[in-house]
Amino acid sequence: MKFADILPQRSYNMTEERANHVLSKFGYKYPDQIDIEEICAYYKIKIKPSPQPDLTYSVCTGFRRGFIFIPAGVDYVNFKQLAGEEFGHLYLHTISQLQTTKSLMAWQERQAKNFSAYLYMPMPMLKEVVISYDQPVDISMLADEFLVSEEFVYYRLSLIFPEKADALARSKGGFGYIKWLET
Q1: Which three-class secondary structure state does DSSP give residue 89?
Q2: CA 31 to CA 29: how far, in whole Å?
Q3: Tell me, what's the pLDDT at 180?
Q4: DSSP string spanning 12-51?
C-alpha cells in the first residue's frame, strides 16, 4: 500500500502548484535528486556565505533573481532547508520585507516555508512512499528518504493532516497516521 491511499481529500493550493512547476523543469524522480543549487542556478540566483554567522536572508535583484546568503559551515540538511525557504521568497515575492507590515511579513514567511516544504517533499514523491502491514513509516524514515530534518517532515505533514502525525501506518482494516501519546 502506498501513502497515496491514505491521503485525505485536498483542495487546490497555489503555493504547492508553483513548487511543482519549478520541479517540473528538472525531471527529478527521487527525493535525493532535488538539488537546490541546480534550481537556483537555473533561475540565476546565487548562493553566497552570509557576512554574519547566524543570519540567513535573500536580496532580490529582479523578478525571480537575486542572492541568497547562508551562514558558512551549516550542515547539508540545514543548508538545503534554509536555501529552499529563501528561494521561496525570491520566487514568490516581489516586495521587500523592509517595506511591508508585520502581518504581511508573517504571511510571506509562512508562504516561503510552505513552498520549501512542497519543493523538498512534493506530493507525487510522497504518494510513492510504501506503507507495509507490519512496519509503520515514522518521521525519521521520511526525513532520511527526503534528506530533510524530522522537524521539516512534521511541518510538511501538518500541511496534509489536521493534527500532528508521528508515523504513517496500515492495518487490515485500513490505514492512516499515528500520533504518539505524550506521557
Answers
A1: helix
A2: 7
A3: 66
A4: --HHHHHHHHHHHTTT--SGGG--HHHHHHHTTEEEEE-S
20 vs 162, residue with greater confidence: 20
| Dihedral of alpha carbons 21, 25, 30, 36, sign | negative
Question: Residue range 87-107: average pLDDT?
Answer: 85
Asked whether residue 95 carries a pLDDT value surpassing 90, the answer given is: no
- The Cα 66–Cα 160 span in angstroms is 31
Strands 45-49 and 65-70: parallel
What distance in Å separates the CA atoms of residue 71 and residue 48, rounded to the nearest whole number?
A: 8
User: Given CA atoms 10, 151, 108, 60 in this order, what sign does their dihedral have?
Assistant: negative
Q: How confident is the model at residue 97 (pLDDT cuts 50, 70, 90)?
A: low
* Dihedrals phi, psi of 73, to nearest 5 degrees: 85, 0
Separation CA 19–CA 108 (nearest Å): 15
Whole-angstrom Cα distance, residue 157 to residue 140? 13
